[in-house]
Amino acid sequence: MKKLFTLIAGLLLAGSTFAQGEYSWRSIIKNGDMEGDDVSCWWSHEWDESVSMRDDGYCRIIEDPTDPTNHVAVVRTYNAEKQAEMDGDIQDWSAQFFIAWPEETPEVGMEIHVSFRFRADHEAQISSQAHNMPGDYNHYDAGMGGNLTATTEWQTVDKTFRITNDHFYGTGATADSENGKEFHSIAFNLYLEAYRIDNNFYFDDVIVEVRKPKPPKEQTGWFDLIHNGDLSSDDVRNFTEKNGDTANDYVNYAANIYEDPKDGKPTLRVMSVPTYEQITGTTDQSELMDWNTQFFITTTHKFKTGEPYKFSMMARADYPVQIESQTHNAPGEYIHWACVGTFDLTEEWQLFETEGTITSEQNGGYTIAFNCNKDREQINYMYFRDIKWEINDAEATDEDREWGSEEVVCRIGEDGFASLTIDMSEATKALGFDEQAEDYIYDETAKVLAPEGEDEDTEYTIEFSATNGFNIDENGRFSDEGDIVITFDAAEGDEVTFNVEDMGDVLTGDAAIVVLTRLAVVKDGKHYVYYITLVGAGAEDPTGIATVPAAGQTDGVIYDLSGRRVTNPVKGLYIKNGKKFIQK
Length: 584
Description:
The protein is 5% helix and 40% strand. Strands 17, 18, 21, 23, 24, 25 and 27 form a 7-stranded antiparallel β-sheet that branches. Strands 2, 6, 7, 9, 13 and 15 form a 6-stranded antiparallel β-sheet that branches.
């Protein structure tokens, strides 16, 4: 029977550029690398023995003590006794570093990107605030995602968030109120109570950019980000557990699929921790928390401020219990206390459905964490299945759509021809094709780099015949008369034949890699991708990718770096046939 596939050929772009205009990032600070004389964007609230508090407010720029060729901004703090002698009234903000943009006035609703490197002579925590001009306080949260920890090694902070009324006008103010203020600076409080010591804080390579948020993409339907949400296969890539079962040593593991004791159907399961003794060997209950056991749903898609979503799942518990959701990055990397809501589980299966819009506090996260340890009176099992996390289909990226992939290498013969047959059974299995279906339809579009002379920074969509093929040149660009002709022919069963013809001298002998071709089996917008690399007859194989002979594909099992078998690898490093390879 025929198999549905899309051919995406060519050396695809590694990244993208922002469109020019009002939706592009625009820098609003000067001398971010601290190498010039302009200090108009760098301020400090700093006590100095010789001049009391600095009168001019501008921050000092000095040679980096660890690298004399580099310059950094520095702010000094003192121990509490000495600080009290100079200041008298000690507060978290008795020493501050400010990033200011006095000549710019960002608007509420704009996105702001803040990045910088920082370190200290001694480890300490710092908090941030939104100010009008430095020292004119607006709000207690500047959007840095909580306190930052400065260590003796350089670290990089990189945050993007939406400017709100709190940043711009101050708590309780509105755009048209008399007490409304502007947002011109971020203050970093360097004198938190537990870290009031003699110390120096250093800042460098600061970037502050703003842009108007791009308008939401047109709604085209809903795209489900969850693989195997109905648990019909053994694919659990989106599900992780922090389980009270001591057999998994109380750490995050890929979730396990069990038979539900009520109806025998497949389910994911998490066990609560009723006593601290289960995980520490003691009877101390003081540190037992709701999040001592958790169920995580993770996707590759990062949540975007303002993005609409739908979430649903079936759930129940052995005993009634409430579970709360949080927003995380990777499982366990907390971002925000809320995500998709709070659910009351009973002994019976219930369908929980919710929809909403991603908030600025959730922006950038990609994991829903459910706190499953609220019931600490007894061992309680919670069960989950039929899970969906849906976004606007137009927002789904290639990474979101990739439901699995395989790497193959096609070696070109000395005569410039090659042919190999690909077994697509794993693709049809991963995408849930009905094995009894008689017909599939060809999606007759291909995406390659645009021809020379056209807009070469964009992909080029063409119509092609599955039997006639089409031409791409040695640079991976579409060509009416290219040196390479690639042809795909449908075959019976789960096999498709891939032919390369009329290569000339392009890939003969020991020629290196010329073009990377992506053959994607597609269903409901979800892709199973075959990364096909063409090499010359005498060329070495690409590192970590096994050559596939014309007779067919090797049957190597794929493992992660912990030695666990992987059915449908996502982006990362894996082992196959004894060799490491990168899943793109």
